[in-house]
């Protein structure tokens, strides 16, 4: 098995897997690594490189990528941009603080300094494991907080889904039967209330976030494409208020369009509430891009640069 090919560009799944497995199976993990070492030294080297890749916060890796491609790392004192990523299992926010007060007031583990291209960079970064869009869907739908048994089936009802909808949804190898439910009032307000409860006290408002120019990726991008706000290949810009207004419109429809996902209302409400919980006001504009100068905006490029920096150390 080639683990590098299976991981892909987004490490969400691997991080969730490690987080769930390590506390309960440390001995088995250690024995497996020892067995790999005995059987295949090349495979061991791959695992060690992967471990070094994953030891660096993914939000910083993506921040390095986007600022390298936009020119923010080319010289000392260059203006940098912030990074917002919404994966399936986690979400990240990273930016370079301009105010010393931000550094002083932020949790110690949210401020990181590192060397890159002969300069020292200090960033605010926070990764929220379990608040990626797919994990959030499960929580909003009222799914179990502890992992269910693979292959099992569970029924979930939600006012965040169209009332007439009934179908299946697979998440983490579990097949859920999901059904819409009458809200008893405006569907948007009912769904927003559920989302706010899911996010209650789980997200910190980031100082300066309202004043930082952000690029947003992954599901932020995908849902903007679904709305027709940006071109799928070229990207574009979107305001936080665009997500809010789209959520209000989609959730209010009695009958969804034939090509519209039944989860679109839920996803848009979650995205709009999450962005505001992170400290971005409704008028805030975000840039959305999959490539810059024909180079993919992947965290892997930034992780590679960081790995190369570690090789310079004695």
In short:
Pfam families: GDA1_CD39. One of its GO terms (cellular component) is Golgi apparatus. The protein is an alpha/beta fold and 314 residues long.
How would you describe this structure to a colleague?
The protein has 314 residues and is of the alpha/beta class. The protein folds into two domains: 3-54, no CATH class; 57-146 and 183-297, Exopolyphosphatase. Domain 2 (Nucleotidyltransferase, domain 5, 2-Layer Sandwich), CATH 3.30.420.150. The protein has twelve helices and twelve strands. It has helices at residues 3-7, 12-21, 26-39, 41-55, 58-70, 100-105, 133-140, 187-199, 219-227, 240-252, 264-277, 299-312, and strands at residues 82-86, 90-95, 111-116, 119-129, 153-158, 166-171, 174-180, 214-218, 236-239, 285-288, 291-292, 295-296. The chain has a seven-stranded mixed sheet with strand order 3-4-2-1-8-10-9. A three-stranded mixed sheet has the order 5-7-6, with helices on one face. A hairpin with a 2-residue loop joins strand 3 and strand 4 (119-129). Helix 5 (58-70) packs across helix 12 (299-312). The longest helix is centred in the first third of the chain and has 15 residues, at 41-55. The two termini are 33 Å apart. Residues 1-10 and 20-25 have low confidence and may be disordered.
């Amino acid at each position: 098995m080639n683990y590098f090919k299976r991981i892909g560009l987004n490490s969400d799944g691997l991080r969730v897997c490690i987080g769930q497995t390590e506390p309960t199976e440390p001995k088995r993990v250690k024995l497996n690594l020892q067995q790999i070492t005995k059987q295949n030294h090349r495979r061991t080297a791959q695992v060690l490189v992967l471990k070094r890749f994953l030891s660096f916060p993914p939000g910083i890796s993506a921040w390095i990528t986007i600022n390298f491609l936009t020119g923010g790392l080319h010289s000392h004192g260059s203006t940098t941009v912030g990074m917002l990523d919404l994966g399936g299992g986690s979400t990240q926010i990273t930016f370079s603080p301009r105010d010393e007060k931000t550094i002083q007031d932020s949790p110690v583990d949210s401020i990181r300094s590192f060397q890159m291209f002969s300069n020292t960079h200090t960033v605010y970064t926070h990764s929220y494991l379990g608040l990626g869009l797919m994990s959030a869907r499960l929580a909003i739908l009222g799914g179990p907080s502890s992992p269910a048994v693979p292959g099992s089936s569970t029924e979930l009802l939600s006012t965040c889904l169209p009332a007439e909808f009934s179908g299946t949804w697979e998440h983490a190898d579990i097949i859920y039967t999901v059904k819409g439910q009458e809200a008893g009032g405006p569907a948007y307000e009912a769904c927003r209330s559920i989302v706010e409860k899911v996010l209650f006290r789980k997200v910190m408002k980031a100082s300066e976030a309202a004043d930082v120019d952000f690029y947003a990726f992954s599901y932020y991008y995908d849902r903007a494409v679904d709305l027709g706000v940006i071109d799928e290949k070229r990207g574009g810009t979107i305001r936080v208020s665009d997500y809010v207004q789209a959520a209000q419109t989609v959730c209010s429809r009695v009958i969804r369009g034939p090509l519209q996902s039944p989860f679109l209302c839920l996803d848009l409400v979650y995205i709009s509430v999450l962005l505001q919980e992170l400290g971005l006001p409704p008028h805030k504009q975000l840039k959305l891009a999959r490539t810059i100068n024909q180079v993919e905006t992947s965290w892997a490029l930034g992780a590679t640069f960081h790995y190369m920096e570690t090789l310079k150390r004695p």
